């Protein structure tokens, strides 16, 4: 889907250069040494908490405009969302990844792998973080992930509401690929929960967005449709279109199950 300067209402913010390029309280400060220490920990946390990570519609990435950076945005329903975002973008795409994180001061080391802070309680600091994301997205090699709901909400909470930051970033960057990603954590047939990530078709912004309010409403509706369709298909067991990024080994008792059945059960039922 391509959006070429949505003509709805004008954005009212006018900021001078010093404000636009001011850094957030904790900017990203990537460091190769720390990345080698922190990245395996993130991978371990995901792979020891969940039995699998599956992704759907990876092919949609090929629809992006290669001249623009990509901004991924997803639902924010649990503690693991940021780790999952990092896992997908690094493990699958090997992207130059950045993530907007609220309350980053609680674990500032995450700035070493691309995290940067956003402090919602301070409009000035929040604006600095948004403008910082804008600067990152001016480099087409970068991939940024944000959670536009602004806070953790129950997984199936409706209606899905986004704050205005996503539209503001789209307006300021000018040319950008927006990728909605619906995350679903659920039990299917495994001992531990599984992660299902569905990538929507890109919304390609050219020459900016002039009406934040209506564009935000459009993004909310588009994401709600994606999330609802994902829930319905998973509930019906329609999982064939998902490919595994990670799948854990079966626990010992499941691997031993065929042998135990053979030994202890009537062979007529095998």
Overall mean confidence score, pLDDT: 88
Please give the alpha-carbon distance between the first and last residues. 52 Å
| Shape estimate | globular
CATH classification, class level:
Alpha Beta
The tally of helices reads 8
> In CATH terms, what is the architecture?
3-Layer(aba) Sandwich
What's the total number of strands?
Answer: 10
Order of helices and strands: EHHEEHEEHEHEEEHEHH
Share of β-strand residues: 15-25%
Query: Could you say how many structural domains there are in total?
Result: 1
Cα Rg: 21 Å
How much helicity do the residues have? Answer: 25-40%
Low-confidence stretches: 4-20
Main beta sheet strand tally, sense and closure: 10 strands, mixed
- CATH fold name: Glycerol-3-phosphate (1)-acyltransferase
The helix-and-strand class reads alpha/beta
List the helices and strands and how they pair.
Elements (H helix, E strand, L loop, with lengths): L1 E3 L12 H4 L11 H18 L2 E5 L12 E6 L6 H12 L3 E7 L12 E4 L4 H14 L5 E5 L18 H9 L2 E11 L7 E6 L3 E4 L5 H24 L6 E6 L4 H4 L1 H8 L6
Parallel strand pairs: 1-9, 2-8, 3-6, 3-7, 4-5, 4-6
Antiparallel strand pairs: 2-10, 7-8, 7-9
Word description of this protein:
The structure is a single chain. The protein has 270 residues and is α/β, with parallel strands linked by helices. The chain has one domain: Glycerol-3-phosphate (1)-acyltransferase (3-Layer(aba) Sandwich), CATH 3.40.1130. Strands 1, 2, 3, 4, 5, 6, 7, 8, 9 and 10 form a ten-stranded mixed sheet that branches. The radius of gyration is 21 Å and the shape is globular.
């Amino acid at each position: 889907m391509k959006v070429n300067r949505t003509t709805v209402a004008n954005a009212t913010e006018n900021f001078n250069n010093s404000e636009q390029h001011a850094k957030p309280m904790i900017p990203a400060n990537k460091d190769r040494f720390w990345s080698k220490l922190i990245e395996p920990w993130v991978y371990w946390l995901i792979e020891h908490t969940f039995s699998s990570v599956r992704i759907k519609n990876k092919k949609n990435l090929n629809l992006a405009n290669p001249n623009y950076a990509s901004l991924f945005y997803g639902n924010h329903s649990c503690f693991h969302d940021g780790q999952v975002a990092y896992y997908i973008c690094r493990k699958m795409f090997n992207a130059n990844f950045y993530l907007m994180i609220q309350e980053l001061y609680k674990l500032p080391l995450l700035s070493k792998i691309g995290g940067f802070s956003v402090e919602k309680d301070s409009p000035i600091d929040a604006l600095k973080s948004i403008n910082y994301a804008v600067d990152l997205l001016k480099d087409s090699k970068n991939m940024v992930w944000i959670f536009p709901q602004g806070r953790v909400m129950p997984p199936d909470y409706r209606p899905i509401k986004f704050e205005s930051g996503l539209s503001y970033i789209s307006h300021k960057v000018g040319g950008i690929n927006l990728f909605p990603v619906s995350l679903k954590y659920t039990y299917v047939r495994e001992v531990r929960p599984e992660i299902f990530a569905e990538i929507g078709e890109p919304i390609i912004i050219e020459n900016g967005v002039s009406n934040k309010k209506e564009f935000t409403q459009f993004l909310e509706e588009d994401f709600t449709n994606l999330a609802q369709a994902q829930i319905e298909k998973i509930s019906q067991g329609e999982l064939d279109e998902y490919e595994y990024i990670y799948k854990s080994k079966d626990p010992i008792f499941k691997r031993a199950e065929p042998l135990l059945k053979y030994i202890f059960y009537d062979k007529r039922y095998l």
